[in-house]
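can u do me a favor
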């Protein structure tokens, strides 16, 4: 198996027709980033998201790389596991030029990929010029320039074009650690769902010239259904496990957060800055379908919840939030501010303003969305790139198929 066909965890768009996770697709540079091309440093501990680690002892720095072109919660889970092997996680993002040279044009630009990756709560630093295939020269840079202690990779073999092990040098130096691949996740499946969702929508529009009311439509197609099996343990792993402190100002934002993208990361960041604790309400699949049509959501409730939970600006989520914000809800969660972005997909069917109550209480804030990007625009971009993906990943699909044919019980995180 060659390098490309085994780098499933990063770009794997054509993997295997199963499973999936919160896709993260995006557009924009996280405001946190200080020195963009020199890499960036996050400060989640300053936000109070993670306790500061013991000082004195030298901190263990671990490194994991990837293209992160169609990012979903499986990638986030890999980085979560990598982080657990050290104190600081440095992520190597493969440059646009390297992706172009090795696989064809990326769907997401470096800025977009950087926004998503650096928004993850497990990521401390990002290097933005990682090579597509790790070289001995680059390994030396990691060890001596970036003070990396261990290079982390998934448990699939990773071979260079000449057939040698890409991580041989790191292994020889005793600086290599392995993590389990994340089951139940594939970009292939997500792309497939986007395709069939948009096709359904178009077929309906061709039929009656309009977007039909959801109640007149048939049930969502089976092809939209996820193979992801959400477990309570995974949700716990992604959670902060902390409630608001005393006197905390609690900010509430709600939405579908479908195909989690950079626009989401940026509005969550802005919302978090308005208070001390950000509570995110994630609309149920039924709510999203009833407001936007049966071809949505593309990602299911638990997948969308994991994507939002992986974002460092988020403190807590409501898994299946109501469409209308009630007085009771505001009281129950002691919500001080309810926010909504200026760029959001409008409801097709609801006349009532879901923010009537918080507006009447004077706690509603409309936030200027930093980026003009929506789930629909992301889906369209993926569609436009679909042919390239099919070609690019045909080989990978085969090796993935083999993997699933031979697979047995999978242990680990
Ligand atoms: C509710 O939130 C306010 C801040 O908006 C805070 O001062 C107050 O202590 C909170 N109430 C409780 C019971 O935590």
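np, heres the sequence
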């Amino acid at each position: 198996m060659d390098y490309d066909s085994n780098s499933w965890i990063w770009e794997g768009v054509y993997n295997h027709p199963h499973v999936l996770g919160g896709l993260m697709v995006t557009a924009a540079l996280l405001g946190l980033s200080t020195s963009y091309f020199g890499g960036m440093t996050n400060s989640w501990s300053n936000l109070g998201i993670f306790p500061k680690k013991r000082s004195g002892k030298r901190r263990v720095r671990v490194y994991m790389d990837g293209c992160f072109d169609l990012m979903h919660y499986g990638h986030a889970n890999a980085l979560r596991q990598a982080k657990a092997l050290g104190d600081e996680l440095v992520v190597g993002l493969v440059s646009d030029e390297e992706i172009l040279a090795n696989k064809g044009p990326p769907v997401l630009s470096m800025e977009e990929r950087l926004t998503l990756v650096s928004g993850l709560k497990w990521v401390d630093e990002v290097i933005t010029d990682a090579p597509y295939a790790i070289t001995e020269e680059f390994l030396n840079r990691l060890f001596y320039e970036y003070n990396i202690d261990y290079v982390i990779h998934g448990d699939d073999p990773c071979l260079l074009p000449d057939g040698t092990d890409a991580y041989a040098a790191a292994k020889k130096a005793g600086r290599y650690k392995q993590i389990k691949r994340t089951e139940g996740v594939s970009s292939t499946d997500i792309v497939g769902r986007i395709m069939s969702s948009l096709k359904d929508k178009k077929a309906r529009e061709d039929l009656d010239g309009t977007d039909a009311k959801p109640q007149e439509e048939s049930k969502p197609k089976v092809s939209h259904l996820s193979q992801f099996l959400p477990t309570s343990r995974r949700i716990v792993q992604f959670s902060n496990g902390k409630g608001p402190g005393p006197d905390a100002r609690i900010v509430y934002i709600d939405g579908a957060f479908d195909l989690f993208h950079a626009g989401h990361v940026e509005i969550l960041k802005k919302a978090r800055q308005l208070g001390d604790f950000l509570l995110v309400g994630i609309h149920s699949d039924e709510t999203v379908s009833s407001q936007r049509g049966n071809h949505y959501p593309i990602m299911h409730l638990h997948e969308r919840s994991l994507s939002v939970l992986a974002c460092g600006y988020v403190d807590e989520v409501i898994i299946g939030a109501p469409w209308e914000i009630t007085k009771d809800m505001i009281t129950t969660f002691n919500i001080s501010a309810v926010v909504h972005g200026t760029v959001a997909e409008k409801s097709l069917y609801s006349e009532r303003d879901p923010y009537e109550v918080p507006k009447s209480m004077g706690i509603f804030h409309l936030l200027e969305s930093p980026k003009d990007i929506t789930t629909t625009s992301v889906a369209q971009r993926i569609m436009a790139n679909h042919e390239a993906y099919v070609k690019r990943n045909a080989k990978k699909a085969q090796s993935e198929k083999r993997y699933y044919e031979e697979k047995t019980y999978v242990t680990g995180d």
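Residues 1-39, 211-223 have pLDDT under 50 and may be disordered. hope that helps!!
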